Amino acid sequence: MPQLNPSPWFFTMLISWATYSLLIQPKLLSFISPNPPTNKTPKTLTTTPWAWPWT
């Protein structure tokens, strides 16, 4: 079965991972996020009990 022969596909996989790791990934990581996360103080919500009409 030719699908199990890794010889023609292994080199293609290595070249694609090398291209991703060496060329594409540094360019993508150099972008600055347009909306950086900030630390927000948590707000405490005040809740009022529900007035059930049958109690």
From TrEMBL:
Subcellular location as annotated: Mitochondrion membrane
Entry's Gene Ontology cellular component terms: mitochondrial membrane; proton-transporting ATP synthase complex
Protein topology in the membrane: Single-pass membrane protein
PANTHER family for the chain: ATP SYNTHASE PROTEIN 8 (PTHR39937)
Designated name of the protein: ATP synthase complex subunit 8
Xref: Pfam families: ATP-synt_8
Family note: Belongs to the ATPase protein 8 family.
Keywords in alphabetical order: ATP synthesis, CF(0), Hydrogen ion transport, Ion transport, Membrane, Mitochondrion, Signal, Transmembrane, Transmembrane helix, Transport
Domain of life: Eukaryota
Signal sequence, start to end: 1-21
InterPro entries: ATP8_metazoa (IPR001421), ATPase_protein_8 (IPR050635)
Keyword presence, Zinc: no
Species in which this protein is naturally found: Atrichornis clamosus
UniProt-listed GO biological process terms: proton motive force-driven ATP synthesis
GO molecular function, one term: proton transmembrane transporter activity
